[in-house]
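Notebook, p. 212. Picked up where the previous page left off. The plan for this session was modest: take the two constructs that came back from the sequencing core last week, fold each one, and keep the raw output in the notebook itself so nobody has to go hunting through shared drives later. Recording the first one now, exactly as returned: residue sequence, then the structure token string.
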Amino acid sequence: MIAEPDAEPVGDGTGEWFWHQQVLPGLYLIRERYFEAAKRANIWLLQGSQRDLVVDSGLGLVNLPSFLRARGLIGSKPVMVVATHVHFDHSGGLHHFDRVAVHRAEASALVHGDNYETVTWLSDVEISKAPQPGWKANTYRVKPVHPSRVLDEGDIINLGNRQLTVLHMPGHSRGCICLHDQENRILFSGDVVYNGALIDWLPFSNISDYIRTCRRIMTLVENNLVQQVLPGHFDSFDAERLYNLTSSYVASVGVCHKISSFTLQCIATLVLWLKYRRGRNAR
């Protein structure tokens, strides 16, 4: 369990909203303090010799780049943010960055600010302290972003002293990716795998894809290509836990699981379609 100390506010207030901790030299974990702990996404900062990389961006209620600059975590080097997928808790802050990368399968959803595909569903009770006076969750939307880079399987993100390989891992969503630092055997897994129940019942989730993805991850572990997992939620874990999580999912997908997931997917799809039908029909 990672303890989150009291915040030290910086001049623009961003330091109160965000919490950060150095995990390894040049690697930082950032979290949104006032978003419900069970749902908030991890944000990772990887500092490179030539450029820096932010993995996921949180809700976007407070300016993340301003916080990183105020803390001295980014400076004059170029900074790019990569969305492991476009669900709102990971993509809401992308519009604060100049350089944005996302997988090709979800680029259109990002460009159009598609709050159906980003599964945007935020309530006031999930935010324990409003980011601005008078803020209400029912006004929250993921803003449209035109990515500066569209990612495909096998693409390399070069930070100078570190290279990350894009692995397209659909299942949770159609554009889910992992970023693999093969030299250091680190996997940024997004929501593909984290230390909890894997979600395969959202719009554009696909169980067959998820099974193939999990088997692919199991092969990475079997080939000793992953040692540490930096997930999209909760705490990091090792290769043994990664193998157990993915193999357990594959073993669990029987008829009952598929029926349950299909039912939940129908409900989620209907609710989100009703919530955002006007915006979708207007495009």
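Okay, moving on. Second construct, recorded in the same format:
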Amino acid sequence: MRDTNFTIGFIGLGLIGGSIAKTIRRVFPNYHLIGFDEEKDTLKEALDDGIIDEIATDCGVDFADCNYIFLCAPVQYNVQYLSVLKKSIGKHCILTDVGSVKGEIHKEVETLGMEECFIGGHPMVGSEKAGFSFSSDRLVENAYYFITPTKKVSEEKVKEFTNFIEELGALTILLDYQKHDAYTAAISHVPHIIASELVHLVKNMDTDNGILKQLAAGGFKDITRIASSSPVVWEQISLSNRENIKELLKQAKNQLDHVILALDAQDHTYLNNYFKEAGKYRDSVPDIAMGLMEKSYEIFVDIPDEPGTIATTTTLLALNQVSIKNIGIIHNREFEEGVLKIMLYDEASANRAKEVLRDKNYIVYERK
């Protein structure tokens, strides 16, 4: 049973670590939070904002009294911290991580004999942005959160930690760590590599004056936005989950070879089924903010090319207490409808914006 005399440590206060810390501060304001990060400015910001109460300077000593410790550094760094923490953490401490690859850390936990205190974790959240400044106290709310216990950790600890994560607003899923790594390779890791490859494809074709960069500013930039995520994080994810990723990339390569053969043979039936089945499955994916990338709330509006029309639109939303996150003209509308793209902060704001604009006879489109 947890009480107000509860101490939680964080190693890493980037997007995920910072968001969990902020959520704990909101839900359990009296808990004592200790933070460590390689970036001193991050620690100062977290301390100044009142998110952490104390800065750790020695991970092998300063987390000794923690009830929970969250490892929130890139996945391979998390593994390295295990041997440091083993020397000092208490018998009743629950040690967890937030990495999107579980295999390496679970194996190291077994090697070090730390199975009785370790419960792997992975919130299915993220963003193309990284760092504490982009973290949010609502990032894990209504998001799936994988829990991957070891075989030797007690059911009591698993239940306690699962309840805690649910109190933060997340939806927990208990899963074997090997299945977890296979699943995340398919829905996160390989898509990230493919998005990056699409960017490389266009980059290599671009002209000296960057014409493709300008033409790709619409739908292409949206479908490849995850390629802007932290290269250090994704380098480590790719190497840590390399076997699952390699197998799926081989399958993708094989599928693309079939597409090439279908193009050579002008096989209408194969190509039609290829696109139809992809569209059918994609449309069946729930349109809710529970994925590994942060959901974007966007609407697209038809406006005439006349002076003052953008100002009129934004003023109308402001008068109705709708805050705009970003706004821009869509020049490449191959994949989008509407001239004006408006990004909102949340679903409620997007729905309100649609209501307000349609009430004034604007034509508003939504991304499906």
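Notes on construct two before I forget. DSSP finds 13 helices and twelve strands in the chain.
Flagging for discussion at group meeting.
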